[in-house]
Amino acid sequence: MPGPAGPGGRGTKRALMESKLNILLLDEDPARLTGIEERLDRLGYRFRSNASPLMPIEQMEALSPDLAILGPGVGLDAGIRCLHKLKIIELEMPVLIICENEASSDLMNLFPFDGIHLVPPDADEDALREIIGGALAYRQECRARTDFPVIIGQSAGLRDIRKKVRMVSPKDITVLVTGESGTGKELVARAIHYHSPRCKGPLVKINCGALPDELLESEVFGFQKGAFTGAHKNKPGRLEMADEGTLFIDEIGDLSLSLQVKFLQVLEDKSFSRLGGTRDTWVDTRVVAATHADLGRKVRDGLFRRDLYYRLHVVHIEVPPLRRRKEDIPLLVHYFMNKYCFEYRKENLDVPEGVMGLLQAYDWPGNVRELENVIRRAIVIRDWNAIFKEMELGERIAGQPAGSFSGAKTPLLIWGDEKINKFFREKDFSLRMISKAYVSEVEKTAILKTLKETNWNRKRAAELLQVSYKTLLNRILEFDLKP
């Protein structure tokens, strides 16, 4: 174990480098950081204290932290907002959370990034040095990668996806990612690559729906000189570019039957022939495929090869649409808000309760991509009323059929057409007015309807509403709901 880098012992080169770190200590109650300050001081670390986790992102960036420590006084909501800001400033920045209460462990469980480390409140100096060293090693490893993926969400579906990503990434197997357009299938593919042993190799993407067959074949498999008019020299395809890395095949359901045969050969024996070529080429490439189509139906309709389907379907990850994980919307909104306010150098835009209520009530047919674009427009326009009128949000929410808010995994949100439309017909209205009048009523109605449909099976109702059992019990008490 190397000695400390402070006056009491010079230690190794690594310890000397660590002593020059700029550590940022954050807590809503700075007095609770006294113990950790004393230990950091004895270890010879430089640190800045008395910083609020709610400070603007610009101030946080100006402090140039290499590592951040969240104290035990940081609440769950403030912690999530603070972590988003830190990860926007530098995605690889390691963050230590002093775990003294339930909120600290909840923050660790809910926050979707890697590089977050729990620190026991009684950790001694040796343990603290080891934790900081491991966190910095993680930072150095991540900095060697580019475009590191971030999967935002605390819903059961997103937690399951992160679990599967961690499970399949180290194993060199084919993965099929399915989901509607805009749900984040490519993000999952990138996460698999960057958490795998192939992370230092290339991640190469090809979209099967973006090119006609004749161009797609040459783009994926490459071509030999003279294969066609204009082929003046050999050209490697995307498969060869992805050697020792990962090939992400997007919209594989659009692949023609003739090209499906060639892809099947790649999956079976890692070989293929270039367009116009006579020799097989072998590649060491992992394949992650994605589609919004129902491949099972395509197989039944004779539009997709059954053998290729089974080769792709070794591990299946389904990314749920945003309407089935509405509890993730606040996290996504705050993440995109911090990200683009920082990117556009704009002041943070407030998201009132009424705004969040409407965002959670909307069905989001374009999924996360649509929500991201709405937040970007809101940051530029800085007028939620204008954004919602542009989207015709009131009419679109009220006009959705009841079935669009129900189903085996869909939150049951019921909005009264006449009430919502009345607000949007009024010239003088505010989002706060809408929120106070109807958000609680909508939530109460949805919970009561779900409980009735499940014969007051609270566990099943919580699953349908995609909330925790504890949250549902609290709402039942709050609204005084009875069978």
> Would you report the number of β strands?
12
Structural class: alpha/beta
- The CATH architecture of the largest domain: 3-Layer(aba) Sandwich
> Within the CATH hierarchy, at the fold level, what is the topology of the largest domain?
Rossmann fold
Classify the beta-strand content into a percent band: 5-15%
Q: How many domains, as an integer?
A: 3
User: Distance between the terminal alpha carbons, to the nearest Å?
Assistant: 63 Å
Stretches with pLDDT under 50, minimum 5 residues: 1-17, 398-419
Major beta-sheet overview: 5 strands, parallel
Query: What would CATH call the class of the largest domain?
Result: Alpha Beta
Molecular shape = globular
Q: Which bin fits the share of residues in helices? A: 40-55%
Order of strands, main sheet, comes to 2-1-3-4-5
Query: CATH H level of the largest domain: which superfamily?
Result: P-loop containing nucleotide triphosphate hydrolases
Short summary of the structure?
The N terminus is likely disordered.
